Structure formats: C-alpha cells, structure tokens
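Input (structure):
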C-alpha cells in the first residue's frame, strides 16, 4: 500500500532539458509533481553542452526547425506551435538569461555559461512548486489502477501520470544510459535501435590524423557507399552530406560537417565499407578548378605545383592531399602532366577518406533511435499504447543536426507534455 504522501499527480523521470520544463509546467498548472533524477544534481548534460556554453536554440522560425529534421520533423509541428523558438528565448530571458545570436545562427546565453541556462530552469522549477528528488533512480515501473506503480532505489511511489524524459545514450557519463528505453518497452513501446549521432568519425588514414588541429571553414562532406559488385551502376550511393566547417583530429574528423553526417556511419551495418568524399573548394565547380589549374601550370612552369593551389587552404593540408593522391608536392609545374593535374583536382574536390567507425556513445552529442514516433500522440506527447504515459526529449526517435535543434525539440516536447498531463 502506497502512503498518501507518495501519491503524485505527475512523476517526471529524468531532470534534463525536457524533464525540467515538463515538471515545472505541470506543477504551474496545480498538479502535484515529483521530478526524479538519478544523478546527484540535475541537468548535467546541459552543463556539458556546447563546450559548456549551451546552444539553446537556432535563429530560425518553427518551420526551419521542422525542416532541419527532415521527414521526422513533422512530429514536432504541434509542440513547436505551442512552444517554439521565440517562446523558448522569451522563457529564458524572463528568468534573467540574456541571449545572443552568432554568425552560424546558434543562439547562446550572452554570458556563454551553460550554468546560467540550468540555473534559470531550476529557478522556474522551484517557483512552480514541483519537488525535485536527486540521487533517486527509477528501478521499476508497472501499470496500476488509475496510473503507475513506481519503485525507486528509495521508495514505492504511485503516479497518476508518468512522463519519461530520461534522454538517450549519448554521454553516458552524464547519466544517460538508456534506462528510459527499458521502461517504455515494458509498457509496450517499440524501440528503434539507438545509435550515436552528432559524433566524431574515425579513420585509419594516418595522413588525416597527422593534420590534427587544422580547421577548414567550408567543406562539403559526403558519406558514400561503394556500389555492390553485382550492381548495374558503379556509381556510389550518397548516404548523407553536409557543407560546413571540418576539423582534423588525432582520431579522424569532427566539426559540424562530420558530426552532421555521422548518423549515416553509426547506423551502417559495416562502416568500414564507407568513405568520406570531401570537397575542399565547394564554391568552385570541378571543371572550373581543373581549367584554373591547367592555366596556372602553363603560366608558371618553374613554380612548385603545390604553390599553385588556392591559398585559402592551409599549406599542410594541400601537401597532405597531394601526397595521399601520390603526387609530389614539390614537382615543378612544367613537369606536371595531365595525370598529375587530374589527381590534384580529384584530391582537392573529391578527396576520398576511408571510414573506420565513430567515437561511439561516449562522445556522441545526441542519440538517434529511441521510442517509435508512430506510437506517440504528437498533439499531446501521450503514449498511444499506455494512457497516462507521456514521452518527451531525446528518449524519442528524433535527432536533429548540430546548432541548437535538439535542445529546441527538448524544450518544445517537454513543455507540451507538461501542458497535456491531466
């Protein structure tokens, strides 16, 4: 028998971005609300995000958020209509967090402190009257008369409504170890296999790793899968592409361009068959670059070939690209024949880098996969399979690109869940 004081109108599980808002909004509506968090403090991932600056959202309208997610973005229409980009910014500013827009469209707290974002959410939560219980992981959940029976590490609890905002599996050190998937599955939900997203990509190519520390501001990166041996076409299949900045690292590649195509790598059954095709001069068409290089070679016979390549690219990168293409960077222009020129153009415009995998969940910013969207009412965030169960945030099969899109989905779905519980 559950004691009266352990009976709640709403229990929210997971005090991250979605959970903090869901609990605050539910409590503001007069519902007796408990927020369970297994960590010693809430919002650990918020504090880690954006290099500890927390990219709150993106400077776009709600349609821009939906479009960034591709077809799954349609699921967010209702949540964004109720609490979108402008409402999110207004909420933080009402709590004393001034914001700023950077050139990339990313919106950050003006202080560049993720702790200010978390403090604002905790301030809102405290004012709402919701009760926050830390260091209290949920162990078991079952259906019960008029709600759910919960067993935590400390007590038995009855909840009329249950809101799962447990996150995914990215950055497991922050406590997101996929617990919510088990609870949702036990209540009848389908779990799309989780995989890392927005995660650095690894390679065995030593020349790539030797360029660690170099950032290229504008690169078109494609993940390609070679055609099967028995395929009619020999043309590779493009699985994902992104044009943005690219950072060379000791393990391979990171930066927005690599992170945004990484889900195609982590979701592939055999990542080692994949390659990254990198266009380091995306503003120039391949035939135009070829003609520019041919003209430069004809006019500067005594100069080294590498010196004729665009100065916008770092010299170390150009040397490495030529060496990887088996072209001597020191070769004189007059000695560079058609073969060397063709290889040089390919190296700059379609550099092929072998993929070995990704850095996995421990370095992933978000999780792809999760609770199947078709089993959730997008107008309320309530489960279609278990009445009284609400689902929000990264626990859903919904992951967006880098740039604040994932936080926006968390704010919006968490707010809608907190507004919908009865």
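Output (sequence):
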């Amino acid at each position: 028998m559950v004691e009266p004081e352990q009976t709640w109108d709403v229990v929210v599980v997971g005090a991250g971005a979605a959970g903090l808002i869901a609990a605050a909004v539910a409590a503001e509506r007069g519902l007796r609300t408990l927020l369970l968090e297994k960590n010693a403090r809430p919002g650990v991932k918020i504090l880690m995000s954006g290099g500890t600056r927390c990219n709150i959202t993106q400077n776009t309208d709600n349609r821009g958020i939906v479009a960034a997610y591709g077809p799954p973005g349609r699921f967010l229409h209702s949540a964004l209509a109720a609490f979108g980009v402008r409402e999110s910014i207004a909420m933080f500013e009402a709590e004393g967090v001034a914001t700023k827009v950077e050139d990339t469209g990313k919106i950050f707290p003006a202080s560049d402190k993720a702790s200010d974002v978390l403090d604002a959410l905790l301030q809102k939560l405290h004012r709402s009257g919701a009760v926050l219980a830390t260091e209290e992981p949920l162990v078991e959940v079952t259906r019960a008369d008029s709600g759910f029976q919960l067993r935590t590490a400390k007590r038995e609890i009855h909840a009329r409504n249950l809101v799962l905002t447990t996150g995914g599996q990215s950055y497991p050190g922050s406590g997101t170890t996929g617990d919510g998937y088990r609870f949702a599955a036990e209540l009848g939900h389908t779990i799309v296999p989780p995989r890392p997203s927005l995660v650095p990509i690894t390679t065995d190519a030593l020349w790539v790793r030797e360029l660690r520390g170099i950032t290229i501001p504008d690169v078109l990166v494609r993940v390609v899968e070679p055609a099967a041996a028995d395929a009619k076409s020999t043309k590779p299949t493009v699985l994902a592409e992104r044009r943005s900045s690219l950072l060379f690292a000791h393990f391979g590649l990171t930066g927005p361009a690599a992170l945004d195509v990484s889900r195609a790598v982590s979701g592939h059954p055999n990542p080692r068959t994949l390659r990254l095709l990198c266009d380091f001069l995306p503003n120039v068409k391949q035939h135009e670059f070829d003609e520019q290089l041919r003209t430069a070679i004809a006019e500067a016979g005594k100069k080294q070939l590498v010196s004729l390549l665009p100065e916008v690219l770092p010299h170390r990168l150009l040397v490495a690209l030529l060496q990887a293409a088996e072209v001597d960077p020191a070769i004189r222009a007059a000695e560079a024949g058609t073969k060397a020129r063709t290889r040089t153009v390919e190296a700059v415009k379609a550099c092929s880098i072998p993929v070995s995998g990704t850095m996995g969940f421990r370095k992933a910013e978000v999780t792809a996969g999760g609770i199947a969207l078709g089993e959730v009412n997008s107008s309320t965030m309530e489960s279609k399979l278990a009445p009284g169960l609400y689902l929000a945030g990264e626990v859903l099969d919904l992951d967006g690109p880098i740039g604040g899109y994932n936080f926006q989905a968390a704010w919006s779905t968490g707010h809608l869940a907190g507004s919908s519980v009865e």
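Notes: Residues 405-420 form the longest helix (16 residues). The two ends are 23 Å apart (CA to CA).
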